[in-house]
Amino acid sequence: xxxxxLGEKLTIWALAFIFIxxxxxxxxxxxxxxxxANKSAEKPxxxxxxxxxxxxxxQKSPEIIASQAEWLAAxxxxxxxxxxxxxxxxxxxxxxxxxxxxxPQENRFMVSQEIPFPAKLWEKGKMANSEAKAAYARYQxxxxxVTNRLTKLYYELYxxxxxxxxxEEIKGLLKKIQSVAQARYSxxxxxxxxxxxxxxxxxxxxxxxxxxKQERESVSAMINAILDQDPMSPVGTAVLPGKPVLKYSLIxxxxxxxxxxxxxxxxxxxxxxxxxxxxxxQLAYFPDLNIGFEYTQVGSGTTTESMDGKDxxxxxxRFNLPIWQNRIIPEIQExxxxxxxxxAKLREVKNTTFFEVKDAYFRFDSAIKVxxxxxxxxxxxxxxxLSADQxxxxxxxxxxxxxxxxxxxxxxxxxxxxxxxxxxxxxxSDLVRSTGVDLNExxxxxVKKS
Length: 450
Hints:
Elements (H helix, E strand, L loop, with lengths): L1 H29 L16 E2 L1 H11 L1 H20 L6 E13 L2 E13 L2 H69 L5 H35 L10 E2 L11 H11 L1 H21 L6 E10 L13 E3 L2 E3 L5 H70 L5 H36 L15
Parallel strand pairs: 1-4
Antiparallel strand pairs: 2-3, 3-5, 5-6, 5-7
């Protein structure tokens, strides 16, 4: 009888232990996973406008400043290459008088000026002018390249900020779903599994936030590097860009790029320079002149046979003899090869331009269409389905997994819309860069994306 009572007590204690363990388990599942507060979020970031960034970059970017200085330096080369060489001056001081036919010669003064064949200076001037045009085109290319990189980084900043906003929205929605699941579990009308899945979804959003915040810090550091600022300087929130509108056909864009792209202009200027260099090499057969003036001072005679002399002067005229063919012929051949090389380079730049324009055009076209599809159809439909499933779950009419699927569809649709819209903005920026002109300025209409 005692053994039976003892066994019964053990059974009661075992059941009590299992009951307490189940309560502790349910309490553990009901514990929320809190996302650490963003310290930088305590002070709201100031809005950041793309136009202000670009204007600041044009004044402070080291790349732009360097290319502008090189262009200004190239302009001075025109004056240098078209100037005459420095004249030569000399003075012969004689210790002892040298007897000449006209009398004893005491001192002689000389000055001469080398004058290249006139056409040579003309060709050198045109070469320097072409180099200055090429330097200016490089300056424009660097400015547009920096602007393009900064614009795309700004759009990447918009993507991270907008994506963080979507995740925060979904996190709030998941917390509401979690509260409903906990309430149903408390009323014995739901399962502990629903609570656990809701908490897992909230925890998974933490991973996405960490990745996006890390990406934002990288983008901010790159923006500061372009602007020549401290990499730790805070970067404000990107303002929602307006939807770009493209009114040109692909053929029109290609024609615009050939006429306006700085790289094409630079290649054309270098082709012109090589042509002038070729003509300058051919002018090596023409001699250069050297005009001088000499003045000889004649003193009084020292013997009775000598008579007082008179000072003399003369204008010597000299010219070089271009007879060394082993120098002239290779120079002409070198210039011809450079003409061929520059023409090939021009074709290469044009072919690259054609590809970049076409690639950016179709990337923009597809991305903007997909973005509009998400904005006008997918997101509204996903939102309606999510609202219906949420109401059905609260009324205990649908399963939790269906509600979770609707939440994921809505969440992915929102992120995909932001991603494709950002890709459209980047492609449009690439299109502006590859054509070399500001197409229709992006209309900052402030259209709000849902």
